[in-house]
Amino acid sequence: MSQHQKNLDLLSDIVKKAQGLGADAADAVMVEGTSLSLSQRLGKPENLERSEGQDLGLRVLIGQRQAIVSSSDLKTDALNELVERAIAMARVVPEDTFCGLADPDQLATEFPDVDGYDPYEPDEQTLISWATKAEDAARSVDGVTNSEGAEAGWGRHDVAIVGSNGLSHAYTSSGCSISASILAGEGTAMERDYDYSTAVYASDLTDPETIGRTAGEKAVARLNPRKVATQKVPIIYSRRVSAGLLGHLSGAINGSSISRGTSFLKDKMGEQIFASNITIVDDPHRKRGLRSKPIDGEGLANKKRNFVEDGVLQSWILDLRTARQLGLESTGHAARGTGSAPSPSTTNFYMEAGELSPEDLMADIKEGFYVTELIGMGVNGVTGDYSRGAAGFWIENGKISYPVSELTIAGNLKDMFLNLTPASDLEFRYGTNAPTVRLEGLTVAGQSA
């Protein structure tokens, strides 16, 4: 019997016990994880860790009352106690008229292969080699003076979920990573930068030498930053930071924010919120995507969906509970942990590429700001007001000219979205991805004039 089947059988037994003790409905999820990580600094390993763990969560419903209990102890006595505790809690918690499992006819009947598991498991020596190559390449860059270290890691997760509604599914995911963080300069004039790569398959990782060299070159490029006066100029967000704008969008169109009325986009469904050439997509079935999964956390079918099409907002991000609150259908975006109820979340969320290269985007900018780092979390999700510290490079006559720091970007996300132009350089490096983008009409606060 496969490990997946053993886990499904265990969860099925727990759900049946919950029903036998009075639950009207129940579901259980189990996550088994194994990880290996290595960190080193200045050529010497600092930490080498391997962890193996498992966690199980049970959700029971009695009428419209819901309780969730989780445990990492899978012994029979502990699981029996977990079921009893969940039942006892569900009898006394307040009613939630919107909670509940999916109806059987809502459950997915097909389970796409997202190619989310690499059977290759790197050993300790492989991780040491990756980190060593990355740090050595970084330290060989002229101008690099110190290192915060390099890291390499690998992990695998086995997920199983069973519900009294007929849901029963299990799958495995994996991932590898390499990173380097490097210092350049001396004394109080030192600058830091980094680079990293994460992928489902080890063979898809950026090679360690490139990671290290890029981290070192970025750190050196930031040396001797200047200050600039407060002014309104065009701003270019590099790919490293542009995905953050999509993070603000996904939070604003998340069903939880919409149902509470706490989103600056709560009344914008069907309206133009971006320029007409912009499409923003969520694709849970992207092959080897970092957040790909065959079904959502409630067992519903998920699919590629345009949340913004031709600049128009098409849908909220919904699970069953938020869909019921809003009188809509779930979009298949429930995410689930072992210790909490399902909630809406994106998977592989991205902005489609534009037609112009990053160089073309800045070619007509007499003076502007190329942003490579954002600092702080000064974003108001209710009003859309945006104010964040930033660093990067000043643009003069269409070219990157010199490093700048200690700036603040201020504006409102509604205006930022409407005045945004994407470049053609989209890459899938993170869970949320966007190309380089250009923004108009923002204030860059620096030195007083």
What does this structure look like?
- The protein has 449 residues and is α+β, with helices and mostly antiparallel strands.
- It has two domains: 217 residues, PmbA/TldD superfamily (PmbA/TldD fold, 2-Layer Sandwich), CATH 3.30.2290.10; 225 residues, no CATH class.
- It is built from nine helices and 21 strands.
- It has an eight-stranded mixed sheet with strand order 7-21-17-16-15-8-20-18. Strands 3-2-1-4-5-6 form a six-stranded antiparallel sheet. A five-stranded mixed sheet has the order 11-10-9-14-19, with helices on one face.
- β5 and β6 form a beta hairpin.
- The mean pLDDT is 96.
- Sketch the major β-sheet: 8 strands, mixed
Query: What is the terminal-to-terminal distance?
Result: 73 Å
Q: On the 0-100 scale, what is the average pLDDT?
A: 96
Poorly predicted regions are: none
Cα-atom Rg, whole angstroms? Answer: 24 Å
Domains, number: 2
By helix and strand content, what is the structural category?
alpha+beta
How do the SSEs run, as a string of H and E? HEEEHHEEEHEEHHEEEHEEEHEEEHEEEE
Helix content: 10-25%
Number of strands: 21
* Beta strand %: 25-35%
